[in-house]
Design goal:
Oligomer: heterotrimer
CATH class of chain A: Alpha Beta
Chains: A alpha+beta (about 200), B mainly alpha (about 80), C alpha/beta (about 375)
Number of strands of chain B: 0
Order of helices and strands of chain A: EEEHHEHHHEHEEEH
Structural class of chain B: mainly alpha
CATH architecture of chain A: 3-Layer(aba) Sandwich
CATH architecture of chain B: Orthogonal Bundle
Helix content of chain B: 40-55%
Largest sheet of chain B: none
Distance between the termini of chain B: 21 Å
Number of domains of chain B: 1
Number of helices of chain A: 7
Shape of chain A: globular
Distance between the termini of chain A: 35 Å
Strand content of chain B: under 5%
Radius of gyration of chain A: 16 Å
CATH superfamily of chain B: ACP-like
CATH topology of chain B: Non-ribosomal Peptide Synthetase Peptidyl Carrier Protein, Chain A
Largest sheet of chain A: 8 strands, mixed
Shape of chain B: globular
CATH class of chain B: Mainly Alpha
Order of helices and strands of chain B: HHHH
Number of domains of chain A: 1
Chain lengths: ~200, ~80, ~375
Amino acid sequence: MTEFSFKITDFVRIKNQRIFHRKDLIFKTEKSLGLDQFLKEAYQNLKITYPKFHKMDGLCKLGILASEVLFKDHFISPDTALVLSNSASSLETDKKHQLAMSEMVSPAIFVYTLPNIVLGEISIKHKLQSENVFFIENRFNPELLMDYAEVLLETKKAPAVVCGWIDLKNAEYDVFLCLISKEGEIPLSKENLKQLYLFENE
Amino acid sequence: MSDLRTELKQSIIEQLNLEELELADIDNDQPLFGDGLGLDSIDVLELIVMLEKDYGIKLTDPEQGKEIFASIDKMAEFIEANRTK
Amino acid sequence: MKKIYLLDDAIISPQGFSTEENLIAVKNEKSGLKFHKNNKFPSEGFYAGIIENELLTEAFSKIGNPKKFTKLEQMMLLAVSSVLKNNPNLNLSETALIISTTKGNIDLLTNSSFPENRVYLSELGDVIKNFFGFQLQTIVISNACISGGLALAVAKRFIAAEKFDQAIVVGGDLVSEFVLSGFNSFQAMSAEACRPFSKNRTGINLGEAAAAVLVSSKKPKKSINISLIGEASANDANHISGPSRTGEGLYKSIKNALKEAQISAKNIDYVSAHGTATAYNDEMEAVAFNRLGLSEVPVNSFKGAYGHTLGASALLESILTKHSLLNNELYTSLNFDEIGVSKPLNVIRGFEKKELNFALKTASGFGGCNLALVFKKELDD
């Protein structure tokens, strides 16, 4: 049904202590370092200057790292839609809030107990005033993301879309973000999204 | 520099995740909000929690917060006058 | 123009377990908000709209075993069941299921009567899907307080793209200790029944509810129908918990929704606002509405009647908006004292009969998200 043909213009993969930009490994650390240290070192390595980063929860830090890499070679329109998904919602931070409830609730923790906050953080940093949605699926669902991205692009609700998966569960992270637009060589398809996601997927 | 002021700077850096700051980076009379350290509304709420947890002072009006937390000096003065811990 | 029709709906709330009961309550200026004693809170308690467990269990026992389902599941299943009962010929293998919730079964973090995995929102989706036997897509949306309306927009977008022809959209959220304690730490809770847009507003009340709507691309053979003809969402890109002072995201959402609907702000007869009664939200909405020339359009908030029902709110309030249009009725914005925002608004102070053709529903949420929906009443001559 697509008279337009959209492309996977760029993509980022963050998993198992590694960050891949397209298929190039651009950063890695040892597993023994743990999540917080990985995030901190990635932030430093990518030379991101954004002190607010340190206030964010794990999910948002992952989103900022991924979008930083994804956006760096492109002009990103402020109407670029954000279509993200995961299985755990904000559960990692929810558990922290639950713990805090027995002592003293922290507003800075509570504010991150929603999965769409990562869309807000990316929007603020990159000044995107665009369509957002956060879907919950039990595993990466390329068809849903592709279908929704196409709808936004074809109805001109967005000139470009960032879609993908950003999951954080028991300190294990699994991030795959794509920039979808008319530019690039890889056609947007369920198969292509799936293949790129499975890349480096031990 | 009094112990309380040092303590406050330490607390603020930890509580508010100001990772890229050192104690020496915060002056006693420097504005903490706006252009100063760039703290925001959630930071005010966190400082209110800190006031209660560490010094036993319960603030029920967050509007007071902006005045009390205007600088390290202002905070120290307020705490010295009202602390119950 | 690609649009969807709102065929049928159900509301499960402290005001009743059907849309009809809820409409009677709203029309008669009744509120589901009650004071609940709890000394963890300032003023020794809080106002909230909470569904009585016994009433819920009793109603749910007619369709399932209450021991096997959580409170939220019982609420959402009852809502869907009600709609399906009225539409027995609905083919579930051709009907998508779209679910909206912010925290789902979050109370299960401290309740071991259900397996740990039940807290996952996709599990909630499976419970609802399997209870009725939906066979087409199940989509779960968790996008803060715009989720319920965003779910309607997503339904319209996929229906317009011919992914499916019809869908049941269901939203729900609980009043949980988890959320109460969080909003309390934000100092955002009012010690009294909330007062949207009022000078003396002091914050939100929470509420729990479930709501379900059947939507379709096919126009029903009725003489009057309500359709969703325009919708848009936009992030403020300002702050994750405070709205933009100039209402950027909401302004953009309303503008784009009106453009898609091919009407102008002048055509809007009624606005169902988000109106949470926080200092910032209500002020932001007033600014956005004024920027669009909507200052004289009758506007209300339903938060005084239900509290803020989070993932259910935009959906529940869209249902009330639909019936406002159908009945040509404007419902009172409860607990309004005098205007407390910096821009003029025409707040509905008492029940009124008025001819209404187009309505605007708005919602905003944490993370800087905003949403606008434009509804139209279509009369068959």
